[in-house]
Specification:
Diverse_CBS-Domain; two-stranded antiparallel ribbon; alpha+beta; single chain; 4 strands; CBS domain-containing protein; CBS_dom_sf; CBS-domain; 139 residues; CBS_dom
């Protein structure tokens, strides 16, 4: 049987996070500044939700036009909180999960990112991009 690497070998450990009390303008700035699509929402070290850039686009078309724009000018963001927009029932994996296990979850659930949690502490995030880059290196 092949030795399938652990997800800890490809996950991102420099995690950008939000708190539920942060505002959506802050979230959009983080998405654009760091060129990311998913941000875990945390309370202390524990994950309580996941916010995706797609979640923001669902409530506001104004900022979808120019993704390179860094100024946020969306009044609709004042109508919602991160807690209202984020996904709350977050599926997570441990850092000892195999890359294959994670790929199967992402494919089945049609997620694009999973938080990596050990002992109720957020330790990383893995995305479909991480898996594609891993696959490319194998070829």
């Amino acid at each position: 049987m092949k030795n399938i690497p652990l997800i800890s070998s490809i996950m991102s450990t420099k995690i950008i996070t939000l708190k539920k009390d942060d505002d959506l303008e802050t979230a959009e700035r983080l998405f654009k500044r760091h060129k990311i699509r998913h941000i875990p929402v945390v309370k202390g070290d524990a994950i309580i939700g996941m916010l995706s850039y797609t979640d923001l686009l669902r409530i506001s078309f104004a900022d979808a036009v120019d993704e390179s724009e860094t100024e946020v000018e969306s009044l609709v963001y004042n109508m919602f909180t991160i807690e209202q927009v984020m996904a709350k029932n977050v599926v997570s994996v441990s850092s000892t999960a195999s890359i294959k296990e994670v790929a199967e979850i992402l494919a089945k659930k049609e997620f694009h990112a999973l938080p990596v949690v050990d002992d109720d502490v957020l330790v990383g995030i893995v995305t479909t991009t991480d898996l594609i880059e891993f696959l490319i290196m194998q070829l």
